[in-house]
Amino acid sequence: MKKRKDFSRREFLQTGAVAAGSLLAASSAKSDNTVLLDPHPYTTAVQSTAASDRVRFGMIGIGMQGSGLLTEAITLPGVECVGAADLYDGRHLLAREITANGALPVTRHYQELLDRKDIDCIVAAVPDHWHKRVVVDACNAGKDIYCEKPMSHTAEQGFAMVAAAQKNNRIVQIGSQRVSSVLGAKARDLYHEGVIGDVEMVELTLGRNDPTGAWEYPPPPDLSPANLDWDTWLNDAPKIPFNNLHFARWRCWKEYGTGVGGDLMVHLISGMQFTLGWNEIPRSAQALGGIFRWPDGRNMPDLHVVLFDYHGIPVYVRLGLGTETTELARFMGPKGILDTGETDIKLSPQRGIDTSPSYYSSGYPLKMREAYVKQWHAEHDPPVGKEPFMTDTIYKGWDWDDMRPHLWNFFQAVKSRKPVVEDAVFGNHAAIACHMANASYFSKKPVYWDESTRTIKT
Q: Within this chain, do residues 139 and 199 fall inside the same structural domain, yes or no?
């Protein structure tokens, strides 16, 4: 999950500033080579839906990300939360506060939601080490499920999740939101229109520089074994005494999470897969990093740099929790650069040709150089008044990590039974890239994907 800003999108909408969204209504509107993209279709959805046509979902996990998903989901037309589950009792109260339903059924046991016939689907935001169990159980119970990223906690888990989805003909959508954003769609269109030519290299970068961004979350003050089922929360992780920091900051430990790879890299990898039309596992990964800024007992790196090989194309990823840097996916080709960020895309075209005589000719004797320069200008200078003009074009849209379009696409798929883009196969491929990055970091060696055994090899 991306770190939330102090003034959230939801608060922005509640102030009535949603009218500003009308600026996005015309994709043809241009000013100074800036293009405003059409909003996502959910913004024009009919607000009233017959009770018989509603999608009823159960919410599993109402923590930082789950509370946001629940808050956004219930604002979508035709969507209703009818039950919630969490192992911490304080979040039962939170679920009822968010839904403004003091009678909302709540439980510590998510299986109770899966057993209910009136629940169509599940939205799950649980720690990584719970993803496989919840997804497989949901699919086996005949429920579609939206599961937070990364899809799996280990590489092998993902294949069991894919098998469960396919066996039960269930819709599984993984929660990397930019796959559903108008910015992601525009970047994909631009690339496949050939604006930069065939991609030759990709750079994916993101940096934070504050305690919350580094998962230094404050545990709930009342948290204790009396109101949290700690033993169940540990799942298949090593059994240890109650630890409120492990509960709140689980991303810091490999026993429960996948570090910056599963929190941040998977967003960038998913967006790259979608933009380029790649739905595959990288051939190899080579990582460097360490714990430089946050030596707080964590065992996951706070700086992680990785070089992937995707069918021969290098993909460089840099993730850090010690320096704030712009979130960026950069696609480079012979015709230019496509930079995609949180709220805009910049297309910087390049001609890829000499615009003046080669400076190598400075090593020619004078007469030879003068003859070469004269001939070059005669052959290459454009007619006066028809000189080529190259300029960047900016495409602006809503935050590419906006939850609402992604949730909307999921709920619409539940109703229509049409496949989603970020299904279990797509999510598995993105997650395995992160697992390979972590495997390389911990082994201090390059790692390789062995398709024949579906394992990561050193």
A: no
